[in-house]
Every structure is written in C-alpha cells, then in structure tokens.
Amino acid sequence: MAREGRSKGVFREYFEAICIAVLLALFIRTFVVQAFKIPSGSMLPTLLIGDHLLVNKFIYGLRIPFSGKVLVPYKKPERGDVVVFRYPKDRSIDYIKRVIGTPGDTIEIRTKKVFVNGEPVQDSHAHISSAAVLNAASSPRDNFGPVLVPEGRIFVMGDNRDNSYDSRFWGFVDQKDILGKAFVLYWSWDIDKPLLSFERIASVRWGRLANIID
Predict the structure, then answer these.
(1) CATH number at residue 128
(2) Exposed site from 84, 115, 203, 210, fewest CB < 10 Å?
(3) Residues 7, 40, 67, 97: which is the catalytic one?
(4) Looking at residue 23, what is its pLDDT?
(5) Is 42 a catalytic residue?
(6) What is the pLDDT of residues 69-95, one digit of tens each?
(7) Tally of domains in the chain
(8) Does residue 139 have an active-site annotation?
(9) Which one of the listed residues 7, 8, 40, 42 is annotated catalytic?
C-alpha cells in the first residue's frame, strides 16, 4: 500500500509539473513572445523565406486574447516598426509588414516614392526590383493615394515594394489585429530543401541567427 501511495504521489507531482509547464508556455505565447516563420518574399531583403523570428507581444500593451483590446497600454506602433498582424481579409492568416503610416498620417505614393504628410520618406529598407512604373488606373503598386490613416489603424507595406500585397491593395490594419513587433531572428534556412535532408541542414544561414530586426 505504501509503495502504491508513493507511486500515486510521484505521478501527481509529474502531472502538476506538466500542467504548470503547459500553462506557463501558453501564458508566454499569449502575452509575452511568439515564434513566426517567413513563408514569402514580401519583406526581402530584410527577411528571407525560411527566416524564423520572435515577436514581442506586449510591447504595444497587454491585450485581451482573441479580442485584441488593450488592457494596459504601453506604446503605440511607430513608423518603421516591423509588425505581425492578422490579415484583414482573412484573420486566420498572419502577415508581417513594415509600418509606413500611423493615425492622422496622409500617405501617398508617386512613381514608387512614398510620401508621408507631403514629405518623401527616406527608407533604406525599401527594395525596388522593377523599373516599370504602373499607373494608378491599372494598379496601386507605384501610384497611390493620397489617403488619410484613420484613428486606430495603421498603413503597412512590405520592404519588397514591387512584390508585396499590402495596404496599397487591401487597406488599413486595425491596431487590435496587431500581434506584436518582430525583434530578433532565432533560426534561418532554405525551406525549399527537403526536410531532414543534408541539403536542408547545409542551407542553415548561420550568419543571420540572433540578428536584430530593424
């Protein structure tokens, strides 16, 4: 009987430890930090396909899960922040882009050049891959606006300006849908290589590990 009692005690201790670990992991993922993987090239060359990054989830304030309502505000998104958010057209999908405009800003794009409140933006992260300039009637890619960013919204664009599906095409991001700010790369490799293969292992981009995202 004593041995049975000790066995139940050990089982209970392990069970409690596992429960605590799971709850702690859920708390961290919900409120503190979360891992994301880059599946597309819209943020090239800043972020590569196969980059794995961590997102600071509390930098913009403590939020109620699922609703996105801020309980304890800390700071607001700023121009230049790289943010992860729920895609407005399908909130089951997460997107990552750079903040170009915040509430009250007027955004305009003229021949690929971004203007905020009438002033040209000097953005060293912007990557232009095509010399072709599309007119506003055919596409908002190269000529867009002006538009005023509403209260509680942000305007975002990918760094790979000619190959990014962003606010130019589908509008503003509700700040309640922002999941956090990307801040560091913790892993990177070529996801087109077969998993668990020598080619995949050899494709690890060691020089990108622990890089700060700006």
Answers:
(1) 2.10.109.10
(2) 210
(3) 97
(4) 58
(5) yes
(6) 666 667 889 999 999 999 999 988 999
(7) 1
(8) no
(9) 42
